[in-house]
Structure formats: C-alpha cells, structure tokens
Hints:
The protein is 19% helix and 32% strand. By secondary structure, the protein is of the alpha+beta class.
Amino acid sequence: VLAVGCAGGACAPRGAPAAAPPLRVLVYNIHAGMDAAQVPSLDRVAAVIRDAGADVVLLQEVDSVVQRTGRVDQVAVLGSLTGLHGVFGRSLDFQGGGYGIAVLSRWPIVAGSVVRLPVFPPQERAGGSHEPRSALWVEVAAPGAHLHVINTHLDPSGADSARLQEIGEVLRLAEDRRRAGDRVLLGGDLNSTPESETQHRVRDAGWQDAWAVCGGAGDGFSYPDGVPRKRIDYLYLGAGERCRGAQVIESHASDHRPLLVLLER
C-alpha cells in the first residue's frame, strides 16, 4: 500500500496499521481496602489498578459505607482515583452498609444485576454466622461490541460442596449470556485450586482458564500476598477468545495479589 499526496511526488511505502491495544482485565480481591496487616490501603489498590492500565476490573471483598472502613463508598472512591466507572454488587448487609463484589470499567456500564447463590445447608462461618454469596453480572459498552462480565466470590470452606452449588448457578448465568451470542468473561476469587472439582466443573462447561491459554508464566499463585501458595483467583474465557498474556502482579495492597489478563479486543 502506498501513501498518497507526498511532497514532490516522492512517496514512501506506508507500514501496516498498528495493532489495537489489548483489553486489560484485572481480577483482584481487595480485602475490604486493607492490606494483610489490616492497614487501610484503598489508595494503594487504586494505584495498582492505574499502573496495570486496567480496562475492566473484577473486585471481591468490597465494603460500601461499612463502619469498619469508615463508612466509605469504596467503589466511588476507586472510581474517582482511577477514572473508571463502577458498580457495586451487595452480597450481604454489614455494619450499617453492604459487603460484596464490584466491577470497574473504562467504558460505561449500561446494565447489571446481582444474582444470589444459595447453598444448602447454609455454610457456617466463625461464631456460627453465615455469609451469603452472589454473582454480579454487568454489560459494558466497550468499543465495537458490548462486553458481558460475571464476577463472583465463592465460599472458602475446605470442602467443595458449597462451591459446587454456587458455581452451578454462576455457570447457568454465563451460559444464558453465551447462548445469546454475547462476549462473556467470567471470573473472581473462586476459593479453589485448579485440580479441584469446582474448577473441573467450569472447564468441563467449555470455559477456558485464561492463565493456561494465555501463557501465564509460573504457577499463577495469588494468595497470600507475601509468599503466595495457592492459585484461587481466575478469569475464564469463552471459545474464540484470543489473548496476549497473563501475569500475577506483585503487590501488598491486599492479602491477595491481582491477576492481569491481556486479551485481543
């Protein structure tokens, strides 16, 4: 292909157009905006998101006007510090506010809903309390084609029984979007390692583990932040997705390290 309108008729060949930048997706359990030592770290979390150049962020363990974190709307603060749009998904009422998950996006979020993930029997936590789980679905007005993001945070119990019930509901939600022909990303803190029955269930349903297919270097361990020993944070891709890479970012702003995946737009 030749350039046109060159001065003096001396035209040089024009190179191929530059490739579009990748879609940068971050999965990050932010530990209610506190690091592993319980020191407030929301500004450091925002710095991680900015430095990663994230276009879409799946957040877990998010507080919204909760007493323990100063009644701050953490999604609003992160949106202000990063310039991203944000939606909070409340999983339970807590200390006068809400606790749950969230999605941040470079582009407007035009629809969304919170889907409950019931478990029977309810899973007991410390002191006999129960922590209901949920999934947050959002539709992002990304350039070219809208993007559907499903973010969740599964039960942390040792056995897979509760997680299998929860992931079944998440997969039904994801499959509804996939059948509609939408581009779907599914991820979060799934509190299960790659060899677990929970992870086999996701892969058997036809979802691709981004760490495996994007060529992530190393073991992908993301928890705990100091010397990670487990891979429990994931992004799953639909068939046909192409990617450029994946990495776990070294950071101590939370008790997890964030997972960054680079996808073709």
